């Protein structure tokens, strides 16, 4: 038996429509948008416009040209951070961030270019908006926060953070790697300056596609980050300064974009609230069962339901890597162990340096999957 519970890394399986759409594009269309005038290229360009429209609508942003495609959310966050910050700027982030945020910021800090403050969450992974307010300085330019933790799934109060940013004239950049496709995200309502997304997780797209939406105010503070051919202004030796070309050099991953659009169509057809409700039911059912297993250590707040379906745990006196290997080799349960590219999060919840075993659920998991996994953990705890 094989059960896939590593969806925080990448969702599997995908909706059937996703690989079908990619195959159809590769076999029947295959053009390069903005580079030629033949039918294949023009059809590809129409698909690209439709994809921008789908993403803008999905996150409630008004202008499709502000939707930028990249290869993944790490690239998106690097562009947003490195292209917008200047000498002397102050940035605030949290202890629950992925290295996709932490490493670019610490790199700038270590070069002496920016000031950086980390707002530490409590042991259950939640940051305090009061702590965040108290960290703001006169030169604070940006707050970068992940919507939901990739370690324990804690969901941050992003509407309140957005209001704080708006009231203090601070750019608000949101990492939605673990929330897009699971939680309803309204760019306009939560006062975002930029939203970074990735296709291969809960948006059900393929790997190698991501992007960001950037508002006009933050865009004015950004310089082009990757320079090259855009299919526009080819006579000029300088990068175009208009969107999306300003940030989209080189040939786009059109098969990935097509697959991402199909993933979004699937989410819309099922309903994002339906997806969240099922995931939340499975998570709560699973936690209620395993929390009573002898030796199981859970890293969440049993009195708070404000989590995605990302669960971290350990078994007392058992090596994390051994537990992960046993789940996979003996029971066919696909999982992830270690620090999950988020070292400060593990220091926050008390699982550093060994990390945790992470089980992350998908809309395609079932109650039977949970029962099988619960039984496996129970067996391992008895014979460790």
TrEMBL record:
<feature type="domain" description="Aminotransferase class V">
    <location>
        <begin position="3"/>
        <end position="372"/>
    </location>
</feature>
<dbReference type="InterPro" id="IPR016454">
    <property type="entry name" value="Cysteine_dSase"/>
</dbReference>
<dbReference type="Pfam" id="PF00266">
    <property type="entry name" value="Aminotran_5"/>
</dbReference>
<dbReference type="GO" id="GO:0031071">
    <property type="term" value="F:cysteine desulfurase activity"/>
</dbReference>
<dbReference type="InterPro" id="IPR015424">
    <property type="entry name" value="PyrdxlP-dep_Trfase"/>
</dbReference>
<keyword id="KW-0663">Pyridoxal phosphate</keyword>
<dbReference type="InterPro" id="IPR000192">
    <property type="entry name" value="Aminotrans_V_dom"/>
</dbReference>
<protein>
    <recommendedName>
        <fullName>cysteine desulfurase</fullName>
        <ecNumber>2.8.1.7</ecNumber>
    </recommendedName>
</protein>
<dbReference type="InterPro" id="IPR010969">
    <property type="entry name" value="Cys_dSase-rel_unknwn_funct"/>
</dbReference>
<comment type="similarity">
    <text>Belongs to the class-V pyridoxal-phosphate-dependent aminotransferase family. Csd subfamily.</text>
</comment>
<dbReference type="InterPro" id="IPR015421">
    <property type="entry name" value="PyrdxlP-dep_Trfase_major"/>
</dbReference>
<dbReference type="InterPro" id="IPR015422">
    <property type="entry name" value="PyrdxlP-dep_Trfase_small"/>
</dbReference>
